[in-house]
């Protein structure tokens, strides 16, 4: 059981997690460390392919790991998953069920919305959801709002968000962020939020975790930084600098392996390619 410096049980404790898709493959996560107390709000930053989604799915108990490296509220996330953990990812919107001809009110009731009427109605207002919408007729952004209402209407202890606000308009996203902040401050709920959109997030995180090529080289970074004047605190520029460093490191690593992204100068196979795929004759 992992305890923080105040003698309290950590809400989330990921200790030196290493994970590979198959045994013998290079790890996609290497010695990842992530520790959060109750009420912490962690912004998970990193380039595409850095391992953010893989980490969140492991924390949600959706990926089997052989190590007992990840615990939520003191319980192993896969062997003994705790209650009160909500994971919301982008893959939800591709499920054929949520694109079928079902009315939103019936859809929410089918997952227990009637048991959480007060929170459900609050989220319906925040997310600007119409209960008479038909799921197959609405936009991706509106469908995302329904997903968030469905996932957040029961009280949760730990929330794992993976790029689920990318479809939301600015106003709805801002209201949702305010709701999440209030949940952490008033109920002590813990949030890990992976996103590439930093507008309006300056007041959201209490911690930042930077993922770089599957690892967490900086550990947990407190936000806002105590040694930087408020007028100079720029979350976007901080992330941009880290991502530029990540790209240079990634290019160096790939170069050592003989891999280079972008256009190739070797076009020896161009004639063979066109002869193979030229259907004009």
TrEMBL record:
<dbReference type="InterPro" id="IPR003439">
    <property type="entry name" value="ABC_transporter-like_ATP-bd"/>
</dbReference>
<dbReference type="InterPro" id="IPR003593">
    <property type="entry name" value="AAA+_ATPase"/>
</dbReference>
<keyword id="KW-0547">Nucleotide-binding</keyword>
<dbReference type="Pfam" id="PF00005">
    <property type="entry name" value="ABC_tran"/>
</dbReference>
<feature type="domain" description="ABC transporter">
    <location>
        <begin position="12"/>
        <end position="238"/>
    </location>
</feature>
<keyword id="KW-0067">ATP-binding</keyword>
<dbReference type="InterPro" id="IPR027417">
    <property type="entry name" value="P-loop_NTPase"/>
</dbReference>
<protein>
    <recommendedName>
        <fullName>ABC transporter domain-containing protein</fullName>
    </recommendedName>
</protein>
């Amino acid at each position: 059981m992992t305890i923080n410096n105040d003698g309290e049980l950590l809400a989330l404790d990921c200790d030196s997690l290493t994970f590979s898709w198959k045994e013998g493959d290079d790890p996609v996560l290497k010695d990842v460390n992530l520790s959060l107390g109750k009420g912490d709000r962690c912004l998970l930053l990193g380039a595409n392919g850095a391992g953010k989604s893989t980490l969140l799915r492991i924390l949600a108990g959706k990926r089997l790991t052989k190590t007992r490296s990840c615990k939520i509220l003191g319980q192993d996330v896969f062997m003994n998953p705790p209650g009160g953990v909500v994971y919301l990812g982008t893959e939800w919107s591709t499920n054929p069920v949520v694109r079928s001809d079902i009315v939103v009110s019936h859809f929410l009731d089918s997952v227990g919305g009637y048991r959480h009427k007060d929170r459900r109605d609050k989220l319906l207002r925040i997310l600007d959801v119409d209960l008479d919408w038909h799921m197959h007729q609405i936009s991706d952004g509106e469908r995302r709002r329904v997903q968030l209402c469905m996932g957040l209407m029961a009280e949760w202890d730990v929330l794992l968000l993976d790029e689920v606000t990318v479809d939301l308009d600015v106003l709805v996203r801002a209201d949702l962020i305010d709701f999440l902040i209030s949940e952490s401050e008033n109920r002590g709920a813990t949030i890990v939020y992976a996103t590439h959109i930093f507008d309006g997030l300056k007041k959201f995180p209490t911690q930042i975790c930077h993922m770089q090529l599957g690892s967490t080289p900086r550990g947990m970074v407190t936000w806002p930084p105590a040694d930087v004047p408020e007028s100079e605190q720029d979350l976007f520029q901080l992330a941009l600098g880290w991502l530029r460093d990540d790209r240079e490191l990634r290019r160096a690593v790939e170069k050592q392996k003989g891999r280079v992204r972008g256009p190739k100068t070797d076009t020896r196979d161009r004639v063979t390619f066109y002869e193979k795929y030229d259907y004009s004759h």
